[in-house]
Amino acid sequence: MTDAVTTGPTATVRLPDSDATRAYGRALAEVLRAGDLVVLTGDLGAGKTTLTQGIGVGLGVRGQVASPTFIIAREHPPLPRPDGTRGPGLVHVDAYRLSSLDEVDALDLDSSLDEAVTVVEWGEGWVEGLAADRLEVTVVRPRGGVDPADDEDAAAGERVVTVRAVGDRWAGVALPGADAVAG
To answer: Helix, strand or coil for residue 80?
Structure first.
């Protein structure tokens, strides 16, 4: 018998560029807390790291949030807030180069899961077992007729972000943009 998965709120937003994607990440950080798992899905260049940069700023963590593709995981400890408290840290993982569940297990992500927000790019199908409660985020960047040979500005271009809350933790939580459904 499998456990029933509780699905919470869903939000879909259209973001005109990378600045808006970072701003949405900052807004998303406002509903995140230590122990939260965020699983990011999207094509190469869709804006997963850009969204995570906004989450990092919103959480108030140390260090520049950059793609951890070659080092697999980066930890960003929390900075002190103006009132002297600290929020959760950020563990930013890129599962793109992982090829087995053993490699995922070797990252020992569950050891820091309770103390930080863990964001896993390319995590779909790999990390859902870490937490019954999670946000599943899909980032789509329609390229509509752009010639790949063109040197398109990486900051330009619309992204469509869909956030799906899974698990009891998200009951009653208002996701940013929940009323801004893409058409």
So the answer is: strand
- The structure tokens 């900075």 sit at 79
Contact between residue 92 and residue 122 where contact means Cβ atoms under 8 Å apart:
no
Residues paired with residue 61 on neighbouring β-strands, in sequence order: 78
Residue 22 DSSP SS3:
helix
Q: Hey, how many other C-beta atoms are within 10 angstroms of the C-beta on 3?
A: 6
For the chain, 183 residues long, the average pLDDT of each consecutive 10-residue run is 65 94 97 94 92 96 78 81 89 75 59 80 83 93 56 74 94 82 38
Q: What is the pTM of this model?
A: 0.83
**Strand positions, DSSP E, 23-182:** 37-41, 73-76, 89-94, 116-121, 134-140, 159-166
Locus of tokens 């959480």:
59
73-76 and 159-166 beta bridge pairing: unpaired
